[in-house]
Design brief:
The complex is a heterodimer of chains A (153) and B (87). Chain A has one helix at 88-93; strands spanning 2-4, 29-32, 44-49, 57-62, 69-73, 84-86, 102-109, 118-119, 125-128, 133-136, 148-149. Chain A is mainly beta and 153 residues long. Chain B has a 3-stranded antiparallel beta sheet with strand order 1-2-3, with no helix packed on it. Chain B is built from 2 helices and 3 strands. Chain B is α+β, with helices and mostly antiparallel strands and 87 residues long. Helix content of chain B is 39%, strand content 23%. The chains are: A mainly beta (153), B alpha+beta (87).
């Protein structure tokens, strides 16, 4: 099991793709070899960061289905105590050996009023920043809801 | 649906490399052991369904996602400048 806290980014705040590098200057392309629940065929996503300096939110744009995209966020600004315990099978699936190489992203549900935006803490996306292999992990813990409010009322 | 009857310590093979073994049957619960290749995801059905439904809800059309991001970012920016106007 690999446990990772919600530190904003990897070493030196380098961000995803720092080690693996996008090379061509485009956004890093992460690969979910096992697909995602509800979208098993969507494997490759561009991680599009926005703003300067970079804000907490990014866009996961499917490269397999042009009309599929997710808003994702770094956990730390909203859930500073959030940690991910990645089980050995998931760690092996993305070749992750150290928590330092992991980038944790939460899928945000903001299809309606932004005040009602929620994040999926039960199923975080974990990216190996060296290989850009990714998995949507499952945290079986009653305190981690698939719809955790992002902005406290 | 294929229906098979198994007792404790008996197994079912799926394809050549997935084995599901009944470990224990007690008080209305069944404990199962599952051996499968690491690239075969295994989930409790109700948890998988919750994640599948949430992924489907969170997925938005490309343009819609960008709009949602704009709305979220302005919301967060406002929140950091002054206390929320509404309770």
């Amino acid at each position: 099991m690999i446990t990772m806290g919600s530190a904003p980014l990897g070493p030196a705040g380098e961000g995803v793709g720092g080690a693996a590098g996008a090379g061509d200057g485009g956004p890093p392309v992460i690969t979910f070899a096992a697909g995602l629940p509800a979208f098993p065929d969507a494997r490759r996503f561009a991680l599009v960061t926005r703003g300067e300096p970079e804000g907490p939110f990014s866009l996961l744009q499917s490269l397999d289905h042009a009309d599929l995209a997710f808003v994702v966020t770094h956990p730390s600004p909203f859930f500073p105590d959030y940690t991910v315990d990645l089980d050995d099978d998931d760690a092996a699936a993305i070749g992750l050996e150290s928590a330092d190489d992991a980038l944790v992203l939460l899928i945000v549900n903001v299809t309606g009023d932004p005040h009602g935006a929620t994040a999926n803490l039960m199923a975080p996306v974990v990216v190996n920043q060296r290989s850009l292999a990714a998995v949507q992990a499952v945290m079986v813990d009653e305190s981690h809801s698939v719809r955790t409010p992002l902005v406290a009322d | 649906m294929l229906i098979l009857t198994r007792r404790a310590n008996q197994s079912i093979m799926i394809a050549h490399n997935i084995v599901i073994t009944v470990l224990e049957v007690e008080a209305g619960q069944v404990r199962l052991g599952i051996e499968a290749p690491r690239d075969v995801p295994i989930h409790r059905e109700e948890i998988y369904a919750a994640i599948r439904n949430e992924n489907a809800a969170a997925a938005s059309a490309g343009a819609g996602a960008a709009d949602a991001l704009d709305a979220l970012e302005s919301l967060v920016a406002r929140g950091s400048e002054d206390p929320p106007a509404e309770p």
